[in-house]
Design goal:
Elements: H1 3-10, H2 14-29, H3 34-40, H4 46-58, H5 64-77, H6 82-91, H7 96-105, H8 108-120, H9 127-136, H10 141-149
Helix pairs in contact: 5-6, 6-7, 8-10, 9-10
Length: 150
Amino acid sequence: MGRAGLLFLKKVNKDEKIVFYKVLKLLSKKNYSENELRNKLNSVDNDIVNRIIEKLKEKGLIDDKKYSYDIVERYLERGKGFYYIINILKRKGFNEEIINQIRQNFDFEKEYRVAQALIKKRKNKGKNNLFLYLKGRGFSSETINKIIER
């Protein structure tokens, strides 16, 4: 964390240190959105949570924008489509501004390539079957229609 983070801890009370270390422990295991962290700390005083989250943002330990793009990449690699990914972001509590940026910058060509790779294994299935399979994985109608046409 560095000296600046430790200096922050010298200026806080014992309760705040306990919460800070709890958050660091959580973040050491996996990434969390700001909203997810707030939900995990719902029993803690809001002022303490706000100060800790601001400090973590300053240190780059919480970055919702970066984390949201990581989620997009991870779920595309797992064979999930646009709508599935957007729903994950909403469930994790990302703000609408970040979700709208993802919508505007989403790589539908990459989604198309992912869908193509998925259906190679299902060549002998009918169009209806392929449509339902891809729709269930959250692919956009545009991508599904392009796949089925070819």
